[in-house]
Amino acid sequence: MNKQKSLLQGLPAALLCLSAAISIYAQSPSEKHNARPQQAVPAPAVAGSNKTDAVKYTYEFSQPKFYVKHIVLEHDANGRGTVTFERLNEDVPVTEPLELSAEALARINAAWQGLRFLESDINYQADKQFPHLGTMKISMERGDRKRVAEFNWTNNRDAEALVNEYRKAADQVILVFDIAVARENQPLNAPKLMEMMELMLKRNGLSDPRQLLKLLQDLSTDEHVPLIARNHALRLIKQIDKK
């Protein structure tokens, strides 16, 4: 119960962190919402990938002073994996499933292909250092080949596009988790989470908003959450459909 209260007290702080360059939210209570909607199952990786290759992609972000201080995102060639995150002042990490949409996976694959990551030894760190924004690591592992690159700021377009996509994917997974926890434990926080989702949508901060349509539809008919949140969910559905 203490972890649940900690989560609910942390929501305002999460909204403040969202306005910063790097954002991400949330921490798990001891129990999860049994009916938490899953993200859509993605299509296979873009053409040219070999399904028989055992490939693993990893993105890691760390900034001990951020509200969410550590994130590790891992996925396979089909975009399936996990997002593990740790919140400030919490010792227990939370791991949630990740399923990238076909569109998001295509963008991520394009960035990896642009980097020619395993064949390259380029240093992606820009001359300018911004350690206060956090440290990022990207890695790829295929067979006996593995490479890890670390930077806190980059001028490489493909590296920048890649970490941006991974940040959006992690943000989306954690937002879905936050909403599920709020529905289970404190429905009165649902309106704030709808505001958060709308802000992320306007900032193009979500990996694939269409993956959230089923969740929003469920929210719009959930009598346990306030009417203002249900109506906001309906408005968000219309906004996503327009896109």
Mind explaining what this structure looks like?
- The protein is an alpha+beta fold.
- The protein has one domain (2-242).
- It is 40% helix and 19% strand.
- Strands 4-3-2-1-5-6 form a six-stranded antiparallel sheet, covered by helices on one side.
- The longest helix has 29 residues, at 157-185.
Determine the fraction of residues in helical runs and give it as a percent range.
25-40%
Q: What is the topology, as strand order, of the major beta sheet?
A: 4-3-2-1-5-6
> What general outline do the C-alpha atoms trace?
globular
Q: Work out the helix count.
A: 7
| Overall tally of structural domains | 1
Q: Whole-number radius of gyration?
A: 18 Å
Task: Report the sheet-strand fraction.
Answer: 15-25%
Beta strand count: 6
Mean pLDDT: 85
Give the ordered list of helices and strands. HHEEEEHEEHHHH
Which runs of at least 5 residues are low in confidence (pLDDT < 50)?
1-52
Rounded to the nearest angstrom, the distance between the terminal CA atoms is: 39 Å
Q: Largest sheet, if any?
A: 6 strands, antiparallel
Helical/strand content category: alpha+beta
